[in-house]
Amino acid sequence: MEEWGDIMGTQDKEFDITKSLKIVEKLKSQILSDVANLFSGMVDYNEQSSSDRSDTLANIIILTYLLSKRLGIPYSKLDMKIKNKLKLGILESSNEKEWFADLTALLRHLDGGYENSRRL
Predict the structure, then answer these.
(1) pLDDT tens, 26-68?
(2) How far is CA 28 from CA 53, 60, 83, in A?
(3) What radius of gyration do the chain's Cα atoms show?
(4) How far is C-alpha 100 from the geometric centre of its chain's CA atoms?
(5) In whole angstroms, what is the distance from residue 106 CA to residue 111 CA?
């Protein structure tokens, strides 16, 4: 009877792997679709509202976090990587005032949370 349990356990693991792969593929497809929608909307800027663009960008960010989790990268690690890249960008862009200001503002937003950024 132990052999039957081993077989069932293996089948469950294979099913979980297959299910995870399908979810990853779905997330990738949705990210690509949203990026394509964003870019096509940017071709004729007046056709897409600011609300539509922000909705699409929010989708891309959410899907990226969900994909990160499915790839075994915890949300906190992704956040840390984002902040580290922002800090590096700030150091490297000190000669470009606008880029420096954007990166600094985004880092402040992520460090202080949404409410603190709204006060800036």
Answers:
(1) 999 999 999 999 999 888 877 778 889 999 999 999 999 999 9
(2) 19, 10, 23
(3) 20
(4) 22
(5) 9
Distance CA 34, CA 52 (A): 11
User: How far is 32 from 20, CA to CA, in rounded Å?
Assistant: 18
* Angstrom distance (rounded) from CA 89 to CA 26: 31
Residue that the structure tokens 């150091």 belong to: 91
- Where are the domains positioned within the chain? 1-73, 75-120
pLDDT in tens, 69-96: 999 999 999 999 999 999 999 999 877 8
Helix axes 2-43, 50-70, angle to 10 degrees: 160
Closest CA to 42 of 57, 26, 21: 57
Q: Which amino acid is at 71?
A: L
